[in-house]
């Protein structure tokens, strides 16, 4: 009876040790998978933020160009000539 109890305790201890040894690499793998997932997520966030900023700059530039075009269309011919002269002077400098 004592021997049987001892063998049961010994086998459960060994099996418990083995199962935890098998579980440990799995935990490390899950942790590394989680880390790689977090890295991918952060890259996605950075890319989305960069695209948003680029699109924002493009929209701003487009609106400014449209306003400039509208302003030029509203100018009289004399004002247009003066604006062209100013642009030429600015480009020469």
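-> sequence recovered:
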């Amino acid at each position: 009876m004592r021997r049987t109890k001892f063998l049961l305790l010994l086998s459960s201890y060994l099996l418990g040790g083995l199962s935890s040894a098998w579980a440990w690499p799995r935990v490390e793998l899950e942790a590394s998978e989680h880390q790689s997932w977090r890295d991918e997520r952060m890259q996605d966030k950075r890319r989305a933020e960069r695209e948003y900023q680029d699109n924002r700059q493009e929209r701003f530039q487009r609106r400014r160009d449209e306003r400039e075009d509208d302003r030029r269309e509203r100018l009289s011919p004399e004002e247009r000539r003066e604006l062209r002269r100013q642009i030429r002077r600015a480009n020469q400098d």
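The chain has a mean pLDDT of 80.
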